[in-house]
Write a structure and sequence with these properties.
With 404 residues, the protein is an alpha/beta fold. It contains 13 helices and 15 strands. Helix 4 runs parallel beside helix 5 (121-130). The longest helix has 23 residues, at 292-314. The mean pLDDT is 96.
């Protein structure tokens, strides 16, 4: 396996860190940290507003980042890329700006049981407010969505919101096939895709996927916190209401009325996260220098090793949620270890510098559906290696000694 660890500065400060919480947020490579630093030291100015050199430089870099994002997901035009704070804001933006315009009483809004709360609750609230039918599609016990959607989608279905990769079980859903069925049954249905966990798992082409909207976060893609992306079909963005009102999204303001800019500026009121957007562009450069395919293959190989070690060492005493094959998951392992409380497991692991997540991972409906209140989650990225897996196994043995 290639050693990417040296690309990430946090290991200089914490050389013994076993970081297994990349599903929550990825670590940041030097190129991203340096990109943030360059903005603040070399050309720290607001965008669009200044006619002086460093403001023009900031604007150029900010819009270059938008173009990089568009290219990364094969959007037709950069104007289809809106910068937000995170995936959550992107999804809420669509629910507010377009959902409230198209969903009425008697309509249907469809989500899956796999969804993160940010792709569940906005649609739930929208349905309740509008008097629409909120339909939740269940999976099989391995977390796989149904193959056939002919009895799920109807002529009343206005919005379908689905995740590409579950943040709990790591399954890569066949969303492209599902969208194809949706289009055949009801071409007017708006399809929203949560790709927060998918950007480093498979190369995304929004045209081939045929989604109407797609959301992801910079901080789960080697980028900084505070920057998210919403891709939207331009015609639908033109139709949607503004999300917030203020500076830069305005074309003109008069006492009697206001007129708004075209997308994307229509949805980017106020001073944006300039440094963070530029640094996200640097993160995309870093990803492209390796390739999504190589990143995915690396994590898959590590996942196979982890799954084999967990089962070999603990057998039935560890319950791994989802498919019982590492080939069907994207570097994410949520599990129950004996009858130990997940918080106790995570606390003991932390005493050995092993960072994992414990809880319901902002997916309470899925945990309840699968019969769990909480789980421990370990997730991998390119800065991890087999030694990290070995340390996890060691740590779990120590948990067993202390709690059993």
């Amino acid at each position: 396996m290639t050693d990417f660890r040296s690309d990430f500065p946090i290991y200089k400060k914490h050389p013994n860190l076993v970081y297994l919480d990349s599903t929550a947020t990825t670590l940041k490579p030097y190129v991203v940290v340096e990109s943030l630093k360059r903005y603040y030291t070399d050309y720290s100015a607001n965008v669009f507003r200044g006619i002086y050199k460093i403001s023009e430089k900031a604007t150029l870099e900010y819009e270059s980042a938008r173009e990089k994002v568009a290219g990364f997901i094969s959007a037709k035009r950069s104007e289809e890329i809106i910068f937000t704070r995170n995936t959550t804001e992107s999804l809420n933006l669509i629910a507010y700006a377009l959902g409230r315009k198209v969903v009425s009483a008697g309509d249907e809004v469809v989500v899956s049981i796999l969804e993160h709360h940010s792709n569940f609750v906005p649609w739930q609230m929208l349905s309740f407010e509008a008097g629409a039918d909120f339909k939740v599609v269940e999976t099989d016990k391995t977390g796989k969505l149904p193959e056939n959607w002919s009895e799920i989608i109807t002529n009343k279905t206005k919005i379908v919101a689905l995740t590409l990769v579950s943040n709990v079980i790591g399954v890569l859903n066949s969303v492209q096939n599902i969208i194809k069925q949706i289009r055949a049954i009801n071409p007017k249905t708006i399809v929203v895709v949560d790709a927060a966990q998918a950007m480093l798992s498979s190369l995304i082409d929004v045209g081939k996927l045929d989604c109407d909207f797609l959301a992801f976060s910079g901080h789960k893609t080697f980028g900084p916190t505070g920057i998210g992306v919403l891709y939207g079909r331009y015609d639908l963005l033109k139709e949607a209401y503004p999300f917030m009102f203020g500076g830069e999204m305005i074309r003109s303001v008069e006492i009697e009325k206001s007129q708004f800019q075209d997308p994307p500026f229509k949805f980017e009121a106020g001073t944006p996260a300039i440094a963070e957007a530029i640094a996200l562009g640097s993160a995309i450069d870093y990803i492209n220098s390796i390739s999504v395919a190589k990143i995915s293959d690396y994590v898959s190989e590590l996942s196979k090793y982890c799954f084999s070690c967990l089962k070999q060492e603990f057998g039935d005493d560890i319950e791994v949620l989802g498919p019982q094959s590492a080939d069907e998951r994207k570097g994410i392992f949520s599990f129950k270890f004996y009858e130990f409380h997940p918080h106790d497991v995570a606390g003991i692991l932390d005493s050995f510098n092993i960072a994992v997540r414990a809880g319901h991972h902002c997916a309470m409906p899925l945990h309840k559906y699968l019969g769990y209140t909480a789980t421990v989650r370990a997730s991998f990225q390119i800065y991890n290696n087999k030694h990290d897996v070995d340390r996890l196994i060691f740590g779990l043995k120590e948990v067993k000694k202390k709690l059993l």
